[in-house]
Amino acid sequence: MLEFRTQGFNGYAVQYSPFFDSRIAVASAANFGLVGNGRLYILGLTPKGIVAEKWYMHLPSFRKLPSFHLLTENLLLKCAVATGDGSIKLFDIALDQFPIQSWQEHKREVFAVHWNLVAKDTFCSSSWDGTIKIWSPTRTDSLLTIPTHSCTYSASFSPHSPSVLSSVSSDSHLRIFDLRTPSSASNHLTASIPLHAPPRTPYHQRAIPPSEALTHDWNKYRSPIIAAAGVDRVIRTFDIRNPAQGPVAVLPGHEYAVRKLAWSPHLSDVLLSASYDMTCRVWSDGSAMGADGGEQQQQQKTGIQMGIADPLAYGSGSELGRMARHTEFVMGVDWCLFGAEGWCASVGWDERLLVWDVRAVMGQ
Fold this sequence. Notes:
single chain, 4-stranded antiparallel beta sheet
């Protein structure tokens, strides 16, 4: 395990470069993001450890997800939002100072930015102001504004379509938008899925109160599958082809809110989570086990009756392992796209970036 100290700055988000397995971006904030400056680190993994290649200071604090542009290896998108100014910054990391572009249309904090992984020439942002905006780095104004009418913590384009994007919000809903549809009164909305709805089985009828959804991620191999999680500590996966069926898998286990989810870029059934309980956990959603739906339901029913299964759990998914080396809230996690499958990075409020191998914590 490798470690880098973001001395004086609490980690908020991390992302590996899609071009180099040795480059990582970390967004951080002084004083836990409540007041003061933020710092964006560009870090390099070297034979002598992790070194800071450069960093950018900004006021207000950097707090949210950095996102590398997929067309050029140096462009990095970054939000600077701690004081609620709603600004978005674009950096060229070949330059030493200042962003090369800045946008400010959101009325409140921006909580997510995400490049279109297919078209690669647009990105989206989501904000506490209840909107998602679509941007082009070559335009000074946004291309489109989509209202969600709720504080939107996470938004991202599908990795399988340039026109489909999703979001999760404080109203406990996962929303799917298709930009090919007429805007009309629906504002491109094609599905709105309540995350708190129980699976449609006879033994999962207990009402679950709505809670804020903080994070979600598209499966990289199965195009209709999305995982989402938040304040209620439970990870759920959904098949957007059948929004009414409820979750496909329900994975309880975290002791506090789940702050970040990331599906594996190597394995279709594995995902990684970061939580306020100071752990990162590795999960399988059970899709690779081959059990049919009826068999899964019977096994779950038997486990609940015998008192050996969590009544919230559903499907054949399970926790595969956990990493508990952070000493404060874990805020971000990301997989390395290159090399041996399993390497990832995590950041937390303990002012540390950890780079570690998921395979080393299996079974822990």
